Amino acid sequence: MSFCVYTILYTLEDKKPEENEYVPMFLLWMAQLAKIGTATTITILVDSRTKKYLNDDTSFPVLYARIESNIVLIEFAPPKTHMEGMRMKYYEFDYEEDYLMYLDIDVLVLKPLSGLLKDSKDLYLHAEGAIEEHGYLDAVNEEEKQNILESGLKCGYSAGKFIIGNKEKGRALFKEIRAFIIDNPETNYYSVEQPIFNRTVIFMGSYLDIGIIDKSLISTNFHNYSDDTTILIDSCGEPGNGRRHLFKMINVVTYENISKSNIDNGYFMNLINVMRNVYNSREMFSDETGYCHYLRTILDVNVFSYLKYSYGNMLNEFWNNCAIPRESDRAIIFVERRCHVNLEFCIKNAAYFARGYAIHIFCSDANLEFVKKICGNNLNNIHIHVQFKGFGTPVEGRTEYNELLKRRKFWEIFTEEHLLIFETDCYLIKPIPDSIYEYDYVTSQWSWLPEEPGGGGLSYRKRSLMLEIVAKFDPSFATFQDCFVNSAIKTLPNRKWTNDYFIESCDITEKTIGVHQWWTFTRESHFSNLEKYITFAQVC
After folding, report:
1. Among 80, 301, 303, 365, which one is most buried in terms of CB atoms within 10 A?
2. Do the beta carbons of residue 499 and residue 456 sit within 8 Å?
3. Of 201, 217, 236, at which residue does a domain stop?
4. What pLDDT digit, counting tens, does each position of 458-493 carry?
5. Which residues neighbour 383 within 8 Å (Cβ) at sequence distance 6 or greater?
6. Mean confidence (pLDDT) of the chain
7. Exposed/middle/buried for 262, CB within 10 Å: 0-12, 13-18, 19+?
8. pLDDT in tens, 321-348
9. Residue 407, in any domain of the structure
10. Considering its fold, how many domains does the chain have in total?
């Protein structure tokens, strides 16, 4: 049972290939398909400019050289519209395999494709949603629509994944779809040609022997996902919104690859490839702030997904068998009002390496139950403070967080002298050393202000220092909570600070015990030293 898997990749005539976010998606799609090794031939229908960009400026030549499947590139002219580009999906080309399968590049293959087939059919389809929704019937007139609904057809078919089992009938299907598009050149559907695909499949129903792929084998955005049974996962989103698709797809690739691999095998190289593709997207952004936000958004989930796979079981076992002290002279402080996907890992990671510390969590009424569930059998030992109302907007979250940490009433809550501030884009890689207590304030050095103490997202502070600062300085002294402390401590000659233990925008060192969003500042040095950043250098 052999498969020819094909996809389309194009850049509109008035766009630049280097700005096309579907290009890195294609590379992820290609790498994942090659990893599974289920396709005898992989055929890519690609426009001439995008093909040149793939060969000149991406990792495609390396993939091409290493993939064992036959690779066929079919070139066409850059399309003027998305409909013109998507029409190439129905281009007739020769293939020798038993089955021809089309996959959008946001549909990832997790297991051999043969598992999708049952019996012998002309066409295998994914019935993905109620036929009256999502525009499945947009290409039919009202009379045709009424007839279809009265026929009892319940589901619309995905045009993003289908299998042709009969070459002759597959050609007839494609011919009808192309003819409709040619006859309706101004057609502009939200889901591009999917309504035309549905119209043609429905009207050719008596000619085609159609098989419906078992829904349990296909997951959409991780819904109904199963490690054991899921064969395809569709990272679907808004049609044409490449960035939204890319974010979702990276989540899938990260989880799926690291759930079956570790730092010693191919996924490590794949992770570097993802980082490099994102890193090389700098020209897409007009300012550094937007670019850094892009890096942080995409790579945060990659880094933490890897960490959760590598160390999640170890941290869970520790958490389930430890007793967090209710009273101590040391405490870890989390301020998080959202149901943040990293919060559980961060709490358990901090507890693992900062043993003997009490834990304080400042949450909202909206995520209180979420926090309690995370605490598990340590719930009664953890100090939970309902500080906020609702999840808040990003702006409200930042503003209220910074204001909170500049107020005396916040620091008076604690009885502990030694305090570790821990945001949800931080993690420790080593135990807290006794030498850190020689200082009053420990931060992450800022590469752009090396003489300043630095960032406070992951920071150690003495309670006595914070009480002294908030007594002497008004909150308006500085906008951001770490800038507030940085400026204040330099006026206090009896207080010591250092930025040797945590890193953010600077390179990791032997003294580093914890990191804060280093991926926001991705640079060339990270590619050769990545293992140091994502490995717990010392396991207790």
Report:
1. 303
2. no
3. 236
4. 999 999 999 999 999 999 989 999 999 999 999 998
5. 326, 331, 358, 359, 360, 361
6. 89
7. exposed
8. 999 999 999 999 999 999 898 999 999 9
9. yes
10. 2
List, in order, residues 6 or more apart from 176 with CB less than 8 Å away.
200, 203, 204
What is d(CA 349, CA 427) in angstroms, rounded to the nearest whole number? 7
Distance of CA 196 to the CA centre of its chain: 32
pLDDT tens profile 364-392: 999 999 999 999 999 999 999 999 999 88
pLDDT tens readout for residues 232-289: 988 766 555 556 556 666 666 666 555 544 444 444 665 677 788 788 888 878 889 8
Query: Is residue 292 situated within a structural domain?
Result: no
Nearest to 39 by CA among 72, 88, 76: 72
Q: Model-level pTM greater than 0.85?
A: no
Ordered alpha helix ranges (H), 46-130: 48-57, 60-66, 82-86
The confidence score (pLDDT) of residue 277 equals 79
Please check whether residues 342 and 489 belong to one and the same domain: yes
Of 108-117, 273-282, 305-314, least confident by mean pLDDT is 273-282
The contacts found for 62-68 with CB under 8 angstroms, 24 or more apart, are 63/27, 63/30, 63/31, 63/34, 66/34, 67/30, 67/34, 67/42, 68/34, 68/37
Helix (H, G, I), strand (E, B) or coil at 355: coil
Q: Does 219 reside within a domain?
A: yes
Write the CATH number for 337.
3.90.550.10
Task: Indicate if 232 and 319 belong to the same structural domain.
Answer: no
The predicted-structure confidence for 420-454, as pLDDT tens digits, reads as follows 999 999 999 999 999 999 999 999 999 999 999 99
Give the closest residue to 340 by CA, choosing from 405, 456, 425, 248. 425
Q: Which of 198, 217, 236 is the last residue of a domain?
A: 236
Q: How far is CA 312 from CA 116, 228, 333, 346, 372, in A?
A: 32, 20, 21, 10, 19
CB neighbourhood size of 69 (10 A): 18
**232 & 330 share domain:** no
Q: Using the structure block, give the residue that is written with the tokens 């090794």.
A: 37
Residues 351, 473 share a domain = yes
152 alpha-carbon distance from chain centroid = 39
- Averaged over 211-218, what is the pLDDT? 92
User: Is 45 inside a domain boundary?
Assistant: yes
**Which residues form the domain of 522?**
311-533
Q: Please report which helix (H) or strand (E) contains residue 487, including its range.
A: helix 481-489
Q: Tokens 């990260």, residue?
A: 254
Do 461 and 485 meet the contact criterion of CB atoms below 8 Å apart?
A: yes
Residues 245, 81: Cα–Cα separation, whole Å: 19
Sheet holding 107-109, edge to edge: 107-109, 232-234, 218-220
